[in-house]
Amino acid sequence: MTQHKPATAVVVPPPKGQALNLTLATAASVVGFWAWNVIATLSTHYALNMELSAGTMSILVAMPIFVGSLGRIVVGTMTDKFGGRAMFTFVLVSTIPMVLLVSLGGALNSFVLVLAAGFLLGVAGTVFAVGIPFVSAWYPPARRGFATGVFGAGMGGTALAAFLNPRLVKSIGYVPTHLVIAGVLALMAALVWFFMKNAPSWTPSTDPVRPKLLAASKLAVTWKMCFLYAVVFGGFVSFATYLPTYLRDVYAFDPSAAGARTAGFAVAAVIARPIGGVLADKIGSKPVVLISLAGVAVLGWLVALEPVADVQAGPVFLAMAAALGLGTGGVFAWVGVLAPEGKVGSISGIVSAAGGLGGYFPPLIMGMTYDPDAANYKYAIGLSLLVATALVALVFTLFFVKTPARQGTQILK
Predict the structure, then answer these.
(1) pTM for the full predicted model
(2) Among 95-109, 150-164, 212-226, 321-335, the range of highest mean pLDDT
(3) Which of 19, 189, 322, 352 could form a disulfide with 92 if both were Cys (CB 3.0 to 4.6 A apart)?
(4) Are the CB atoms for 367 and 54 separated by under 8 Å?
(5) pLDDT tens digits along 324-337
(6) What is the band of 406 on the pLDDT scale with cuts at 50, 70, 90?
């Protein structure tokens, strides 16, 4: 009798250059986020030198977020067509003149020029829509939560900006600080162009851009992920951009002290994001996102109570950052796995745009609802809206977003 040996699983080695390209993509994202947040992290500088009100300052801070968010839709689709190497280089090089224009506007104390420059600076925020399809192509579906989580840690550029920018301005001056950032952008663009490669399995999409966007917009999963990402990533962007202003108004911190605390907030979110992606690979995205949203609701309420700095407020803000970071990793693990092949860039571009837009409106609301005459709870209205939004998203995820028994086995309907 012939005996059949049990079949053994074939282990496919990772493609050569996988780790290097993930590292380069993450580094490019760090630099892009650093440049994207150059105005927000120097909000106190602009407020003092231009005598801006809280409402006007919120408009200035939010402007790069708005353009960077909408631009992600187009850039994500272009990445499917031209590849991550070309698009990373394009975004980094295009950001350089915008940073220099911001520098000129600030040197002239021209609010209009800084606002216009901030509008154009939004190109830096599109870096995220390049990286998601790029790293997804390098990794199999079962590890895309890990890959997108690690790449998502590139939002640590927000922490870098918050910590370094006020200190650089204080030590070397306002204009030289922007020259340093421009130089780093140029260096990163060169590294990407000469050392980055597209995944071996990647092929340029020949489909026209408009039909691809329309096709992606017709998928229910696109809009479900848009809403969830607008809450978790939008919440992170909102805090990261407005926190220096918030800490100045509520706790009277100077720019350097507020910047250091904002950097700590961003680092906590950066660490939590890949953890969210890895957990999503193991247990599914739904429980990860539910835990995240529950944490945001509870912690948002605690923030609104204005706990005493730093013993009470510090842990609350760090926990809030971790909850938001966990959620961003969980949501984009869903996107990387559930998006049909060839549509990852289009869907991730739309979802990324929604996340950015989720971060655009809260700073405006915070500035408009700020009560400078109140002895306590100056931002109570804005933070209450955050809590309510998180609770709505929690219920929506629990009852209206269905996930396969095994993540990645089918597409959400």
Answers:
(1) 0.77
(2) 95-109
(3) 189
(4) yes
(5) 999 988 987 887 67
(6) very low
> Angle, to 10 degrees, between the axis of helix 54-82 and the axis of helix 111-121?
30
Nearest Cα to Cα of residue 387 among 270, 297, 278: 297
**225 vs 351: CA distance, rounded Å:** 6
| Main-chain dihedrals φ then ψ at residue 310, nearest 5 degrees | -105, -10
> Cα 183 to chain center, whole Å?
23
Query: How far apart, in whole angstroms, are the C-alpha atoms of residue 184 and residue 241?
Result: 21
Distance CA 89, CA 83 (A): 10
**Token pair of 276 as six digits:** 């969210």
In the chain, what are the domains? 18-400 (1.20.1250.20)
Q: Which pLDDT does position 143 carry in this prediction?
A: 81
Q: Which residues of 91-100 are buried (b: 16+ CB within 10 A; e: fewer)?
A: bbbbbbebbb
Helix (H) or strand (E) holding 57: helix 54-82
Q: Phi/psi at 190 (nearest 5 deg)?
A: -65, -40
> Looking up tokens 């295009």, which residue turns up?
94
**Distance of alpha carbon 331 from alpha carbon 354, whole angstroms:** 12
pLDDT for residue 197 is more than 90: yes
CA distance 281 to 139: 13
For the chain, the first-to-last Cα distance in angstroms comes to 49
Sign of the C-alpha dihedral computed for residues 223, 229, 234 and 237 taken in this order: negative
Contact 334, 283 (CB under 8 A): no
User: What are the tokens at 223?
Assistant: 């809009």
**DSSP string across 250-271:** HH---HHHHHHHHHHHHHHHHH
Token match 């969830």: residue? 228
How many CB atoms neighbour CB 308 within 10 A?
9
Token look-up 């698009």 returns 87
What gap in Å lies between CA 350 and CA 227, rounded to an integer? Answer: 11
Token pair of 351, please?
A: 């979802």
The H-assigned helical ranges of 284-410 are 285-304, 313-338, 344-369, 380-400
Please give the torsion angle defined by the CA atoms of residues 214, 219, 225 and 226, in that order, rounded to the nearest 10 degrees: 30
Average pLDDT score over the chain: 86
